[in-house]
Design goal:
Elements: H1 23-36, E1 51-57, E2 71-76, E3 79-84, H2 90-96, E4 106-108, H3 114-117, H4 120-127, E5 136-141, H5 150-158, H6 170-173, E6 181-186, E7 194-199, E8 202-208, E9 217-223, E10 226-230, H7 241-245, E11 250-254, H8 263-268, H9 272-282, E12 287-290, H10 300-308, E13 315-317, E14 323-325
Parallel strand pairs: 3-4, 4-5, 5-6, 10-11, 11-12, 12-13
Antiparallel strand pairs: 1-2, 1-14, 2-3, 7-8, 8-9, 9-10
Helix pairs in contact: 9-10
This protein binds zinc ion.
Length: about 325
């Protein structure tokens, strides 16, 4: 069990270069840099065999956590088939992982926070240089008075007349050699997971996760008799999360707040005891924690012992690019 990585994130200071320096001084600075700072936590890569899930971003919205923001890539026999979220920084790791946009069957956006959706235009622009021609489904939550629906979000990005990235407008219409983004909102019942995608041997379910006032979804993927479940951002208060994660071979849950969190943080995120309760009641085979924040990094031992009160299975702390084979 890997559980101590957070200790690396001790808030070391990065030396600043204030004026031009000679080569020797640069070398000294370089050595000092190496001693005094922490490299990003890159994990093992996938094997290219069977079903695997890779954590492209294991952090939250803080850039000081030295991690990319939320994104998960599901590989089947070496092809990246499903992307769940595209948080800031994750598109670079999508490339580092060797994934290709043309292989994706679907992108799920759990919700439209920056740390879950900011890199969507980065992926789309990058794919201009690839060979994709078939449409790319992008499914995400419906909107409310505080957040746009996923269709509106994508339109605000790419609409040919009014979008921020209007120069990529062909990706809404599929014209001029571009493939079309097939964007769909998912207004779903809150009391049970609903099937939202079923093609190419991949069946996906979604459930409103309960993330304060933010329309947000949790996901369950069933592929070749194996089950992956993703909590997304959630307070953990929706009892149907247990159904979503039921007997999952891997359940990826977000460790964004410590146990004592109150107020807005607690309204948005689940503390370790709630993660343990859901994982235990759902009898998941393996629990992977991600979406760490500076308030949870460095507290891994405590987090694990709180989860252990309700869940006895394996617990893993994810780092960026860690890849987990999914097996019975
Ligand atoms: Zn988040």
């Amino acid at each position: 069990m890997k559980s101590e990585q957070g200790k690396e994130f001790g808030g070391h200071e990065i030396p600043r270069i204030r004026r031009p320096v000679c080569r020797q001084r640069l070398l000294l600075l370089f050595i000092f840099w190496g001693l005094g700072t922490v490299a990003p936590a890159y994990g093992a890569s996938c094997t290219g065999q069977g079903l695997e899930v890779q954590v492209l971003g294991s952090g939250g919205p803080e850039i000081q956590d030295k991690r990319a923001s939320s994104a998960y890539l599901v590989w089947v026999d070496g092809r990246a088939r499903v992307l769940i979220d595209a948080g800031s920084g994750s598109a670079n790791h999508f490339g580092d992982a060797g994934a290709q946009v043309e292989d994706l069957d679907i992108i799920f956006l759990t919700h439209l926070h920056v740390d879950h959706a900011a890199d969507l235009p980065v992926l789309v622009k990058s794919s201009f240089f690839g060979n994709r021609t078939r449409p790319l489904p992008v499914l995400g939550p419906a909107g409310n008075n505080l957040y746009p629906a996923t269709t509106e979000f994508v339109r605000l990005l790419f609409d040919r007349r009014s979008g921020a990235y209007r120069y990529l407008g062909d990706y809404l219409t599929g014209e001029n050699g571009a493939y079309a983004l097939q964007v769909k909102d998912l207004p779903l019942p809150e009391d049970r997971p609903t099937r939202v995608f079923d093609a190419g041997g991949i069946t996906a379910y979604a459930l409103p996760s309960g993330h304060g006032p933010v329309p947000s979804l949790a996901h369950r993927l069933e592929i070749g008799g194996l089950v992956l479940a993703f909590s997304g951002d959630t307070s953990g208060n929706n009892k149907a999360l247990v159904d979503l994660a039921r007997e999952a071979d891997i359940f990826i849950a977000h460790n964004a707040v410590p146990e004592e969190e109150e107020g807005v943080g607690r309204a948005l995120h689940m503390p370790p005891s709630v993660i343990g309760k859901i994982a235990g009641e759902a009898r998941v085979k393996k629990l992977v924690l991600a979406h760490f924040m500076n308030r949870t990094l460095g507290r891994e031992k405590e987090t694990v012992s709180l989860i252990r009160k309700n869940y006895g299975g394996p617990i893993v702390m994810a780092n960026d690019l860690d890849c987990y084979p999914v097996k019975k």
